Amino acid sequence: MRKFSIIILILVIGGIYGCSSSKKSFKSGNYYSSVMQSVSKLRKSPNNKKSREILSQAYPMAVDFYTSQVNRMKDSQDRFKNGKIVDSYKMLNNMHDEIRRSPGALQVIPNPEDFYNQLKFHTREAAGERYTAGEEVLAMGTRNYAIEAYYHFVQANLYMPGYLDVKDKIEEARYFATLRVLVEQVPVPSMQAGLSAQFFQDQIEQFLFNYQDNEFIRFYSTRDENLKDPDQILVLQFDDFVVGQVNNQERIIEASKDSVIIAKIPQSSVQSETQKEQKVVICHSPPGNPNIKQTIEVSVSALQAHIDHGDKIGPCDGYSGNLTSSNSAPQKETYINVYGTVKARFRENTRQVVSRGLMSMRIMDAKSNTVVLHEKFPGEFIWVNRWGSFNGDERALTREQLRIANQRPMQPPPPQQLFIEFCKPIYGQFQSRVRNYYRNL
Question: Whole domain around residue 225: which residue ranges?
Answer without folding.
Answer: 182-248+348-438
